[in-house]
Design brief:
It is a single chain. With 72 residues, the protein is an all-alpha fold. It is built from 4 helices and no strands. The longest helix has 17 residues, at 40-56.
């Protein structure tokens, strides 16, 4: 997580926004396929899946998903 956090956003994990953290949470499936520089559309699609799972389990509100994605 630290390497991904520094590599993708040049931040420590505790400095990430929820938007940035949700991008990193979706990386383990296929890091190169979800590269922000190469495949931003796929990264955002995966981010949405992560955020929807967080909403399903009541970590965030469903109504907040769009604003979280647009944070950065």
């Amino acid at each position: 997580v630290v390497n991904a956090s520094l590599g993708y956003f040049n931040k420590k994990p505790n400095e990430l926004t929820l938007s940035e953290a949700s991008i990193i949470a979706g990386l383990p499936n296929a890091p190169s396929a979800y590269s922000l520089t190469e495949h931003k559309d796929l990264a955002v699609k995966r981010q949405r899946q992560v955020l929807e799972a967080m909403a399903k389990y009541k970590y965030i509100k469903t109504s907040d998903i769009e604003s979280i994605i647009k944070e950065d």
